[in-house]
Design brief:
Strand order of the largest sheet: 1-2
Largest sheet: 2 strands, antiparallel
Distance between the termini: 70 Å
Helix content: 55-70%
Shape: rod-shaped
Strand content: under 5%
Number of domains: 1
Order of helices and strands: EEHHH
Radius of gyration: 22 Å
């Protein structure tokens, strides 16, 4: 088959241009959805806490002045949600990058802008993981 036309797959001709468009659309969907999913992960994670994410909020102090033991549990639940949500999105972003590398022929031109958007959003999810990690919080 002529190299410029593409290759045969299931009795249809898929051109390199079609494959590139498919990748580009997938990368754009990931990038645009990450704009909304990233903040949603953070806000929903802090929603698990009664103090709205504030470790020193007055709702965590009992009437006798001691600290409510449920505070640690709430913040651990928030951390688990944030880290697992961001990790899932990192895996999806990595999957898109791997799909791009292995599905498009090396000789074809790759539009780098959607891939750059995926990489930037992946750095955002890394920031979510680092910011929700275990820290030494004190009041």
């Amino acid at each position: 088959m002529n190299e410029k036309l593409g290759y045969c797959k299931a009795n249809s001709i898929i051109t390199v241009n079609d494959e590139s468009k498919k990748y580009s659309k997938l990368a754009r969907i990931y990038t645009i959805s990450s704009i909304f999913i990233g903040p949603f992960i953070i806000l929903l994670g802090t929603g698990f806490t009664r103090g709205g994410g504030d470790y020193c909020d007055s709702v965590y102090y009992l009437s006798d002045g001691t600290i409510d033991p449920r505070r640690i549990t709430e913040f651990n639940n928030a951390q688990i949600f944030q880290v697992s949500g961001a990790s899932l999105m990192l895996v999806l972003g990595l999957g898109i990058i791997i799909y791009t590398i292995f599905s498009i022929k090396k000789a074809s031109k790759i539009n780098i802008w959607p891939l750059l958007g995926v990489i930037i959003m992946m750095f955002g999810y890394i920031l979510v993981i680092l910011s929700s990690g275990k820290g030494t919080q004190s009041c």
